[in-house]
Amino acid sequence: MASDTSALAVVTGASSGIGLELAKCCARNGFDLLIVADEPEIEQAASTLRHLGVKVDAIEADLSTIEGVDKLYLAIGNRPVEALLANAGRGLGKAYLDQDFAAARKVVDTNIIGTIYLIHRVGRDMRDRRRGRILITGSIAGFMPGAYQAVYNATKAFLDSFSFALRHEVAGDGITVTCLMPGATETDFFERADLTDTRMGAVRKDDPAMVAEQGFAAMMQGQGDVVTGWHNKLMTAIASVTPSDLLARAHKAMAQPGTAKR
Question: Which regions form coiled coils (predicted)?
Fold first, then answer.
């Protein structure tokens, strides 16, 4: 159980998938919750989580915008945030030059700008109190150039790097920073990112509950990072010694549209 059953955890992207499962982990460990997503399904998620016996507040906000993050921060009010689980993210498949630029920018604004702005606001409050935990959902996608997912993989590379840098900056401030780096996970990510007709979209995926449990445990233990699943650990080990050009070529074979049945 969490040491303080009234401690507040803020979980973004919590309407489904890994975010909802992270929120469940927090609730089972005694955290009250403020959950956020950019869709009305966040209210149904809140109803589900309340059955776990904790206080749950939910807001619908677009965290790709400064205004959306400010809306979330205003909802936090003067409550101390014990744990910030920055999980909100967006994907986008197909060739970069074929993508709508507004959609590509939304990926950057959600995955990078909204995430680091929220961490900047909440992290300063944690530093003032000299207490807090931050979990950032990165991805093993950040280890490889993502042909046909070029913008998405680049944003995850940013988050993976950012989390390690921030961890060492705040090491003496009572704050821990953990990077959760899953691989392909059974969520609606692939449908939303228009990747269902790719080999990547067709492969067997990890259970989001397993991913969340490992990420939550790593956060509570103050670990710097966790790669979920043995096969993902193997992939990251291989990626670390493979030339980027070969990684991009391999990713192309998995993410190119129309490859699902090849």
Answer: none
134-155 per-position pLDDT tens digit: 999 999 888 988 899 999 999 9
List the CATH code of the domain at 8-255: 3.40.50.720
Separation between Cα atoms, residue 209 and residue 130, nearest integer Å: 30
What are the residue ranges spanned by the domains of the chain? Answer: 8-255
Q: What is the pLDDT of residues 181-231, one digit of tens each?
A: 997 777 666 566 566 667 666 667 678 999 999 999 999 999 999 998 777
> In residues, how long is the chain?
262
Catalytic residue list contains 73: no
Checking 57-61 for CB contacts under 8 A at 24+ apart, the result is 57/33, 58/34, 59/34, 59/35, 60/36, 61/36, 61/37
Q: Which of 73, 96, 117, 152 is catalytic?
A: 152
